Amino acid sequence: MLKTRSPRFLAAVQARTARISASASATRGQGKGVVKAARDYLTTLPLSEFALARRTLFLARLEYHTLALVKVLPAKARRWGLARKLLNIFLRDALYTTYLAERYGLKRSELFYEIPLDSITTRHLRREAGQH
């Protein structure tokens, strides 16, 4: 049985989080190989790099990994917006996963996380802002 603080257990939890985050629905219409490439990148993403209390440093790290993810996506899917969306979904899911959040100190940067926007969230935000 794996202990919840063991490196193997945390790697398995991170891999599961990557599988859920980089889903077929999150990458819909982006072409073959996108899901696998994104999952492979997110599975090995050093989460401790996001345990930052300074917004400017967090955003610089986010940008660095967004561009790095763009480079590993299949040629037809190499877009900043797609990479940022997948990274944001993954980071949010990692924050919500107690084991990862505690081990890597992700709560330090929680206020800096970007909301991965989809059409439902956008519609809700517009409605709240009075822009039906």
User: Helical content, roughly?
Assistant: 55-70%
In N-to-C order, the SSE pattern is HHHHHH
Query: What share of residues are in beta strands?
Result: under 5%
Number of domains: 1
The coarse overall form would be: globular
Number of strands: 0
* Biggest sheet character: none
Radius of gyration: 15 Å
Number of helices: 6
Estimate the mean pLDDT confidence: 91
Task: Tell me the span between the first and last alpha carbons.
Answer: 52 Å
Low-confidence stretches: none
Structural class from helices and strands?
mainly alpha
Question: What would you say this structure looks like, in words?
Answer:
This protein has 132 residues and is mainly α. It has one domain. 58% of the residues lie in helices and 0% in strands. It contains 6 helices and no strands. It has helices at 7-21, 34-43, 55-72, 80-96, 98-104, 119-128. Helix 1 packs across helix 4.
